[in-house]
Amino acid sequence: MSTLKQILIALTLTVPLPGQSQPVITGVVNGASFQPGVASGSWVTITGSNLSSVTATWEKAIVDGRLPTALDGVSVSLGGKPGYIYYVSPTQINLQAPDLDPGVVTVVVTTPTGTGTVTTTAVQTAPAMFLWAGKYVVATRQDYSLAVKNGTFTGNTTVPAKPGDVIVLWGTGFGPTKPVVPAGIPVPVDKLYPTASDVTVTVNNIPALVYGAALSPESAGLYQVAIQIPTSAADGDWPIQATIGGVKSPASALITVQQQIKGASCSFPLVSIQTGSDASCKGGNTHMYPVGMPGASCHGWRAVDTSGREHDNSANSIVCNGDGTFSFVQFAGNLTCSGNGQPKTYRPNTCAQDIPPTLFSIPTNLACCSAPTSTACKTGIPEVGVAGASIFLNSLLCVP
Question: What is the pLDDT of residue 313?
Fold first, then answer.
């Protein structure tokens, strides 16, 4: 290749074209807390203008397990080391920082139209939890169901954490691990990579039991912190903070704690019935089934009567009538809401119906039905009166 041709190629790569602008960096912040600074190996967000001419992610750019240091012509260096770019757009870049020594570092964004440069401070740890809706920590249960205030996501019913729940917090910036995993590769799955220092967590300034903190397998720079919500925590939105190496995460992050599921529009989400009963509502064992829980397509219950026979029932089309009663369609002999259902109206404290109840009782958390083996499926079971009854949702066993 001639020298002239080499110069022309270099010019097209480094000189802004007419009508195009060089990148401008307005911020370099923690990718979870959005506070200034960079933690070694953590997630970083760069904001500005002219950062990229396209919007893209690294989905198709990971080669041989190595994360890309350039994406659609955009690259970033921090302290002279390449960052690992996950996302680019005209106004934002998300990346995993390289391994950095503490101190002032120069950040350079290079695009086909030029470069932008700023300085920032690198630190070893800057713990922060990712947020939903800009304020609630990203938290899941062990079955990966979301532990967040209901209403946070439109059209998606979620169940907040309750006192005593074991949940997993998701964050970044928790520092080195033992053994060390270098930046730029997904975390191997063959062993655990816990943080080199212990993590403590408080919920509304109450210490939480921390089971451990480690990098999430097959990810990069993403940490999981497993805790138990303090049993003394009251209902409410409370600040939740993690501390490692004397450095605290932002106090503005919140977690919702709620003792039990509240009925959405019904004040009677669980029905108490008796099997083998007579006209006086007295007879065999008492069983609970959540026929009145709003918002689910099909509830079912299996109970054993006084002669030992099992009876299957299911119900859907549940409607709160606003007068202390609710209506539903009952299907006898199955748990799938199939066949010819019979319309029923439930009237508390009466026997003038096919299912003679006594009174509504403790709500049962049916969110666990997406993972019926989870210990959360025990949530809300009354301490008495459930012998011989199993509760189902859409044919999944929730309460054995």
Answer: 73
Question: pTM, whole model, 2 decimals?
Answer: 0.63
Distance in angstroms (rounded) separating the CA atoms of residues 387 and 306:
12
Per-residue pLDDT for 400 more than 60?
Answer: no
Least confident of 47-61, 157-171, 230-244, 325-339: 325-339
Structure tokens at 120: 């920032």
Is there a contact between 141 and 165 (Cβ–Cβ < 8 Å)?
Answer: yes
Q: Which of 266, 396, 394 is nearest to 331 (CA)?
A: 394
Residue 340, classified by CB atoms within 10 Å of its CB into exposed (0-12), middle (13-18) or buried (19+), is exposed
Cα separation of 319 and 203, whole Å? 37
Residue 282's pLDDT is 38
Nearest to 245 by CA among 102, 134, 136: 102
Tell me the one-letter amino acid at 71.
L
- Both tokens of 115, joined, read 């470069």
Domains of the chain (ranges, CATH numbers): 3-123 (2.60.40.10), 128-257 (2.60.40), 271-399 (no CATH)
Nearest residue to 361 via CA among 284, 281, 272, 253: 272
88, two tokens: 């680019």
